[in-house]
């Protein structure tokens, strides 16, 4: 209804900045309140006064003015409305507005009542036509145009992107001191976009838009910039809630990056899946590739505020934990660490040492370090949380290496606290550990090779936001149970290296993999073979455990092999080395060395030592030396029964202490290929007991290697050949090898190694060595034809593998083409190229 009371005759509203003051005249004006129509009154272009009666209801809120204005803009929807000269009072707020008939109609349609975001309802008093406009009065649309023009003249550069129109916090522009300009009002946003578009002189230079912190929820006016490629659209800090409206409004807007941080939409259950319709419009969302947004999404960055969400549990209120026993929500662990002394991996290692492995599986998710605190969230593990609180007293023990008898100190600890029920579980956007593990297992299985590769499983793509620690026996058992049921009739090889595994009990499910023959457990934390004894039921043919501390428990390779074969009776390959009854040494596994060093060791020693045995074949050892190679020999045997038979070695010994004439010391060092081979020709022939040999790769880095070998050989000199009993000597030999050339071979991947330094030490054999000497036949005892056949098969196999690497063909096709050309690689490659040119190679021939 209209309300006429005695009003003051008028007032003067001073705008400043060179604008004429607005002379408000209340004489003859009607005041409207709680009514739906202004009757016969004509608003026209005149100024109208608005009074909001709040009666101090909002004085305790942070920003009452913003609440009231947001209520106005919600009520008028998308109509043009610019409050001028806003004044806040203890009971009533007042402002003027003009040229707003459609907005007035919507306010009257709501009975001149506005509803705030707090659900409070406020009464509005409207006095129509309190002043007539003149040209010198402030004109909000004109001021908006001038503000936009000034920003267009000063395009900005951010993160290397130039030509950015910065409209962030637009309402705080210096021209709007007496005007309320809100881009949350669609009409105002449209006005701004039109001003930008109509600035033809500068619009072509705009390469992106920053609309941050403007309260925007409706982006429809951005269609004015459609079908053009921009670098950036920054919408962070607004009120975008509806993904349907967002995708609809930006259907034709294109930019390299879209920024949505601090919008309600990113806390919705549909985010980030709801962004898929915009995949063609934007490459990045908040710096993350839009197609990988789901993989990098974390509720700790978007949904959960760990400062206030949930209920805090620490040592002072441990008894309150019981109220969360049946909770299915997320719970947060907060570990203060102001110095950031722990890495993510170190923190998880400490937790998995602390938890009780007989309780529920423990899957920390969405790790984050911020403001001096480590944070992650877990769910469905109340019994573990109860153990951490009641037994461990919310203290994380940190192992430290110290000098002393024990070697490990657990005195250092970090106290931490929990926040229970920080968020509900949202199946559409939050990860489920078991579902994610299942998908990763599928991705890790190579169907063609029938190999399940779980090396460093915690680093598998797809597990970035969940820690799947296979060092935890129940988690390892669960993962392998899932794998066994997925690939029970397919998997023949399982790789579990570098997973910090300490024991393998409870793995009966692996028996479901009926064709499993090979298992790789290298570079784990296995200290005793008893830890892997449960695997003896698997009937493995190949086992790899090098790189584990257990390998250092055995002094001799033969002891190590015997201990492993006692458990795995049918084993034929151990640590990538074939277990033969005749042969070469098994390198001692120094777990600081790359396994490729062992391959070099085996190949080099077999070739070198067999070539060294006879004077007739020593000439072939020239290929291992250069003109700068150095060789030394020592023989310090003092036993009388050995002196005569070791004279040939003692003569060339480099023991300087025993030289009467030090000028002869230089003669003890043999430099260059000719000098070294000449010395070898003066030394007796030998026959190595290959079973007695112990080898170690002391160093390997793809450019150099240090190889050590010791063992027993039979002296084959003329003196000993006349004796009835064989004469045995012990020896040790050290080689320093360096790469002499690279890029060799057909595939350009081969390297040539040369000996740069070598030392041979002749020793008296120990009683054990003499007792076990030549107990098993040497590989050299095989018939020449058998050895030749074996070597031919190996060469053909290597050529077939190399041919496959070069061409990408499957092995049956490699063998077929090589056999056509009698394993001549050059001709085989020519045949392949000819067949490829004639389309004679089907697609399924390739891997």
TrEMBL record:
| Lineage: superkingdom | Eukaryota
Gene Ontology MF terms: RNA binding
Arranged from A to Z, the UniProt key words for this protein are: mRNA transport, Nucleus, Repeat, Transport
Keyword Nucleus assigned to the entry: answer is yes
Question: Where does this polypeptide localize?
Answer: Nucleus
What region holds the NTF2 domain? 600-762
Q: Which PANTHER family match?
A: NUCLEAR RNA EXPORT FACTOR, NUCLEAR RNA EXPORT FACTOR 1
* Similarity-based family: Belongs to the NXF family.
Q: What is this protein called?
A: NTF2 domain-containing protein
